[in-house]
Queue: 2 jobs
Job 1
Amino acid sequence: MVVSEPVAKLQALVRIPTVSDRDQALVDTAAFDRLLAEHERLFPRLYDALELTRVGSHGLLFRWAGASDDQPVVLMAHLDVVPVDESAPWQHPPFGAEIHDGAIWGRGTLDDKGCVVAISEAVERLLAQGFTPAQDVWLSFGSDEEVSGTAAVEAVAELTGRGVEPWLVIDEGGAIAGQAFPGIKPPVGAIGVTEKGTTSVELRVDGRGGHASTPARNGPTARLARAILKVDRAPMPASIPAPTVELFRRLAPHAPRPLRPLMANAERLRPALTRALVAAGPESAAMTRTTFATTTLSGSPALNVIASSARAGINIRVMVGDTVSDVIAHLRKAIGDKQVEIEILEQGEASPVSPFDDEAFRLIESTIVELFPEAIPAPYVMMAATDSRHFTAICPRVYRFAPFRMSQAQRQAIHSYDEHIGVDDFLLGIDWYQRLIERLPT
Ligand SMILES: [Zn+2]
């Protein structure tokens, strides 16, 4: 089979297992070194014409000087991937980058080496044509996105130090999403305009411990269990944020007939729509409020020993409109037990909402319509976290969108098994970045 040049480039990068880890000692840094060398080999014009600053351990920040630096643009992606669960039933080797059924299979094809190569290839092509962008274009490729590392933070610091205030930032997140909503046929060009914040707390109850033959009532484990149940039974108030209202308004004409009036009038019917989303299941409920998931639990290490300390970790996704301090106050009130300590382990606020009615958003939107005429572009609230959240400190227009068609199955394969990208979809993604760069405002 004849493989086109950009496809071979993506295959080459997918075959290098750049798995990040929170513990830097467990990272195969040689793999990252190889990836950077390979990237340089594959995109010679880019390295020749753009100015490179290294950020973090293996992050890359490039500046492509444009005709103007008034409205700089940052295109983001990340070089690292999540690990592969050896017992997961991958149909094709996860680092093989094999082509089957018109798709390239492997870890990172969608998340996020597809974007790395598509952005780099678009730049490489434009350079080959002697093109100069109307505005400065920065490429920010992190190397530790999957472990909430520092490469993107350093990229932001570098830009700040140089007095660069981006006009527009685009990172992974949304996609040309097929089967995005039940009953809606056309794919949605889902553009993330904000993302939930990730915060984690630990609940802890301390006691005397002792021998399991003489238990007292209401020991640490029982108290902790009661606290967990109370949190489970006291969800945060639900509502529908403005981007979701706009999403529904845009999807309404394509929805099943009985749903159309509700979606078209989402603004006015917010309370009813909120109740419907909460009732429809955990995924749609998560669109309406801050969520709590009790994830880790620990008590006594032995069957015949009473725990002297019982602990539970709660992973919290903070909805736009709530703050971490609102959430902690809610937890304290819901638990209502002073003996349950609440310690914040990590703290992340929801990102500010980027505008979805201005020139930058319309540029993304119209480029989607041009390349994917079948899709309905729309803003949405992202549930997961991306590196782009760090850029909200220096740019009011941060959008999360990868220009690839992704079916529901493909979206579910991200961070799971059988991750793959359609060859044609990947090639169209390159065109999308190219058109976007060509259309930057003068
Ligand atoms: Zn990613």
Job 2
Amino acid sequence: MDALESATARGLMRGRGDDMPGRRYTPREMLDRLVGFDTTSRNSNLALIAFVADYLASHGVEVALTHDDARAKANLYATLGPNGGGGIALSGHTDVVPVDGQPWTSDPFAVVERDGRLHGRGTADMKSFIAVALALVPDFLAAPLAVPVHLALSYDEEVGCLGVDRLIEGIEQSGTRPAIVIVGEPTSMRVVNAHKGIYSFATTLTGHEAHSSAPHIGVNAVMAAAKLIGFLDRMAAEMRDRAAPESGFTPPYTTVHVGTIAGGTALNIIPRHCSFEWEYRLMPGADPDEIRDRFDAFAAEVEARMKAVSPDAGIRTEARSRVAGLEPERDPLAERLVMALTGDNRAAKVSFGTEAGKFQNAGMSVVVCGPGDIAQAHKPDEFIAISQIEACAAFMRRLIERLETPL
Ligand SMILES: [Zn+2]
């Protein structure tokens, strides 16, 4: 099957079957295609991945896929230029956040141009970077690259950077680990070398019902939860006391936060159930397990007192996401290279999490640098300025030229 047949036969294409083998796309045309796939994290991303795989195949590029357990989602990894490891990876997530309940003025899954801006879900976060990289594949292939350029597309970033672990595993197994990774999250094409880590949890408490007039025979799940939340509040204060004002972060310390709570059924019943969600946003370099470990130790004390009254009482905490922070590097290979290409003379820090820390923990040199502004991400009428797409394309062309000599 050729690219056209395989894609249309699987019913994956939006619009007409106009994808001739070896077809070239402008970044704008490629963005139209990518936004057309509704890759909200709860959905499969396989249609988008199949489109990209077919497009790359039509240019003679093989892809390697790694799937989630249900085989409903896939990461894609492909190498342009010389085979093997080293070189540069251009990395992006294929999923987007939901549009539910948001007042969009046009179809979120069709790119609409207004006043020099392209509107659509994922235009800023982060299909434009992927679109530019893909549109320039023929240019990468035509250039006498001295080192490989890898394309690394992940699933499930928006729900806690869950998919990229398998992408990195696949890279390790294939022996094609890049030296440098550029994560193209929207930074308005500025070079970012640090962000906090995000660790989130759901804690569920089970108490024991009784009439509210008889608290001595019941276990109050809401009041036990209040003790745990009080503990987190004290941890928050302790982290504030460890502030590092020179770090450049706002605020310059690890933050601890409880975001939701639900519990109890009626005022005259001692509540059996309470649950709350909480997170900490960790300064790069801080121990990622300290807060969780100390919380668990405190929760074990509270739980022992609950079980002394009723053995069916208990506390359970589940980890939701674990997004490693990105730390400035001692030998910042990625930062030096990308700053030379963008003309930045200082790297910035951002407050949002990305997959960059996971690549860094796997031994790659990483920066975040991509088109668009994070301020427009996740919102109704999300957009990217066309000038940002042009800036990204110009950056990629400089990158191609640079990679004609070894790193
Ligand atoms: Zn993103």
